[in-house]
Task: inverse folding
């Protein structure tokens, strides 16, 4: 299952990002581009093959029966030093298609609980939502 594919911090980051994009059931070309851009920005692309990780993700995700356990496993492997930054990337990726579904909202709540960022969650959510709106509408 997923713990056969996710054994390093970089793999965990990749699969968390893929999960944020895929949570709404749609996996658009723009979302794939967003994740791959994050790969390059964070220099993860040097260690991992994105297409291979995407195939791994697709091979196990339908068998994940306990999302909380899955997220705990991934975030424990990531062992974030900058939890708000990690959370903000997740919000940004959930919004990469311009919409935030109920499933994605639930996912973000679970991630914020695991990261124990409580009251900061709404500030980060608002910040990323407004940044996305500025990108789309081209106004401040």
Result:
């Amino acid at each position: 299952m997923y713990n056969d594919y996710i054994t390093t911090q970089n793999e965990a980051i990749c699969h968390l990002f893929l999960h944020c994009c895929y949570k709404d059931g749609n996996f658009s070309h723009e979302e794939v581009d967003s994740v791959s851009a994050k790969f390059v920005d964070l220099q993860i692309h040097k260690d991992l093959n994105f297409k291979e990780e995407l195939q791994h993700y697709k091979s196990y995700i339908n068998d994940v029966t306990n999302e909380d356990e899955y997220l705990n496993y991934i975030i424990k492997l990531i062992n974030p030093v900058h939890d708000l930054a990690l959370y903000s990337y997740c919000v940004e990726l959930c919004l990469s298609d311009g919409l935030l579904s109920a499933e994605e909202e639930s996912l973000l709540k679970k991630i914020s609980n695991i990261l124990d960022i409580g009251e900061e969650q709404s500030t980060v959510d608002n910040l990323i939502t407004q940044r996305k709106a500025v990108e789309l509408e081209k106004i401040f």
Remarks:
- Helices lie at 2-5, 9-22, 29-41, 50-60, 67-78, 83-94, 102-115, 120-137.
- The first helix runs from residue 2 to 5.
- Residues 27 and 128 are 20 Å apart (CA to CA).
- The chain is about 70% helix and 0% strand.
